[in-house]
Amino acid sequence: MSDAIDPEVPPSGTGCVECDAVNGWWVHLRRCAACGHVGCCDDSLARHAAAHWRATGHPIIQSFEPGEDWFWNYDANEYYDGPELAAPQSHPADETVPGPRGRVPQDWMAQLRQREQ
């Protein structure tokens, strides 16, 4: 599994790459441990982190939330012990959750509930 993690590669940015490209929003962020791609979590509408795993085969992600350092292995569907990755370790601590500030719709909770029905 050594090719699943590159501790030297920095994150792709401070927000979900795909959501930022379309002025979207997310609930939480996840960082690919292999290439640094930052995508939105499975609780987000678009689920870009999981889509990145399916498209690339990069199975290991790390939370990109302040104060969280856990890893997840999509292939095994379980937590994973990983090394410290290149800085920064999270999105800016002053960013809103969900985020980013100014793009989260007022009815965001209703949108998430509607998706689950």
In short:
This protein has one domain (2-116): Herpes Virus-1 (2-Layer Sandwich), CATH 3.30.40. It contains three helices and five strands; from the N terminus they run αββαβββα. The protein has helices at residues 17-21, 48-56, 108-116; strands at 29-32, 38-40, 60-63, 71-73, 78-80.
Account of the protein in words:
- With 117 residues, this protein is α+β, with helices and mostly antiparallel strands.
- It has a single domain (2-116), classed as Zinc/RING finger domain, C3HC4 (zinc finger) (Herpes Virus-1).
- Helices cover 20% and strands 15% of the residues.
- The chain is built from 3 helices and 5 strands; from the N terminus they run αββαβββα.
- It has helices spanning 17-21, 48-56, 108-116, and strands at residues 29-32, 38-40, 60-63, 71-73, 78-80.
- A 5-stranded antiparallel beta sheet has the order 2-1-3-4-5.
- The longest helix is centred in the middle third of the chain and has 9 residues, at 48-56.
- The protein is globular.
- The N and C termini lie far apart (36 Å).
- The model has no long low-confidence stretch (mean pLDDT 96).
Identify the notable features of this structure and list them briefly.
117 residues; alpha+beta; Herpes Virus-1; 5-stranded antiparallel β-sheet
